[in-house]
């Protein structure tokens, strides 16, 4: 699991907030410097930071907690902004042809069969779907997603839609193995959990490791497709 701390293009503060930060920061800095005391220096430093927030449009506190008030700007279709979120990459080799593995995954209602925390996936019109998942803390979160890129027997890519409890995006590739009999399944996911990077770090400290869970889910998929026996998903 990799927490993404991108600073490039990391504008996460609304333009109106930026102007207020600049004005308030300048006033605090000027007031603090005039006092010429330890308290005044602290006030001035707070003002300088507030002014920096306004000038750059980047708030470190917002970043830590996964908050963004700025317009997306780099494309409304991007459900997880570049500077936020957690990225996970996992792969596994399954001794079944790509067409079969792709067909099983593409029927999204199959996903809860091997993904432990996924309660249900309801397929809708227009490549849209409604997902329901139980978090490590026992809370149930729901979101709608859309498949925005698809190559038959090769690729499925999706992103969550506005209004989701969890912003997420991901892709899964199905590549034939060199011997032509199996499939390398490679999954990449990026999501912005409740609480942002802080939330992800706290969850890891409490033992909830989404990357390890993804690895186990793929092992369940391998077991089900290779043996023909449904995986034991508790």
Break the fold down into its secondary structure elements and pairings.
Elements: E1 2-3, H1 15-35, H2 38-56, H3 60-64, E2 86-94, H4 98-106, E3 118-123, E4 128-134, E5 140-151, E6 155-160, E7 167-176, E8 183-192, H5 196-205, H6 210-227
Antiparallel strand pairs: 1-2, 2-8, 3-4, 4-5, 5-6, 6-7, 7-8
Helix content: 25-40%
Give the overall form: elongated
Q: What's the architecture of the largest domain in CATH terms? A: 2-Layer Sandwich
Low-confidence stretches: 1-9, 73-83, 195-207
The CATH H-level homologous superfamily of the largest domain: START domain
How is the main sheet built?
A: 8 strands, antiparallel
CATH topology of the largest domain: Alpha-D-Glucose-1,6-Bisphosphate, Chain A, domain 4
CATH class of the largest domain: Alpha Beta
* Widest sheet, order of strands: 1-2-8-7-6-5-4-3
Oligomerization:
single chain
Describe it.
- The chain is α+β, with helices and mostly antiparallel strands.
- It folds into two domains: 10-64, no CATH class; 86-227, START domain (Alpha-D-Glucose-1,6-Bisphosphate, Chain A, domain 4, 2-Layer Sandwich).
- Helices cover 35% and strands 26% of the residues.
- The chain has helices at 15-35, 38-56, 60-64, 98-106, 196-205, 210-227; strands at residues 2-3, 86-94, 118-123, 128-134, 140-151, 155-160, 167-176, 183-192.
- Strands 1-2-8-7-6-5-4-3 form an eight-stranded antiparallel sheet, covered by helices on one side.
- Strand 7 (167-176) and strand 8 (183-192) form a beta hairpin.
- Helix 1 (15-35) packs antiparallel against helix 2.
- The longest helix has 21 residues, at 15-35.
- The chain is elongated.
- Mean pLDDT is 78; it is low at 1-9, 73-83 and 195-207.
């Amino acid at each position: 699991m990799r927490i993404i701390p991108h600073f490039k293009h990391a504008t996460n503060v609304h333009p109106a907030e930026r102007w207020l930060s600049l004005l308030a920061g300048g006033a605090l800095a000027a007031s603090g410097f005039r006092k010429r005391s330890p308290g005044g220096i602290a006030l001035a430093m707070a003002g300088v930071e507030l002014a920096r927030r306004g000038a750059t449009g980047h708030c470190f506190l917002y970043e830590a907690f996964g908050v963004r008030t700025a317009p997306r700007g780099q494309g409304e279709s991007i459900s997880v902004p570049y500077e936020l979120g957690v990225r996970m990459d996992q792969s596994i080799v399954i001794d079944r042809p790509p067409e079969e593995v792709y067909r099983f995954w593409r029927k999204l209602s199959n996903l809860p069969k091997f993904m432990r925390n996924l309660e249900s996936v309801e397929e809708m019109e227009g490549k849209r779907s409604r997902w329901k998942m139980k978090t490590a803390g026992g809370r149930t979160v729901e979101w709608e997603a859309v498949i925005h890129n698809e190559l038959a027997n090769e690729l499925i890519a999706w992103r969550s839609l506005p209004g989701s409890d969890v912003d997420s995006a991901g892709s899964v590739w199905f590549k034939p193995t060199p011997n032509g009999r199996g499939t390398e399944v490679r999954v990449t996911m990026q999501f912005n959990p409740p609480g942002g990077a802080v939330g992800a770090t706290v969850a890891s400290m409490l033992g909830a490791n989404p990357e390890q869970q993804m690895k186990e889910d793929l092992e369940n998929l391998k077991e089900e497709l290779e043996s023909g026996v449904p995986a034991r998903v508790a």
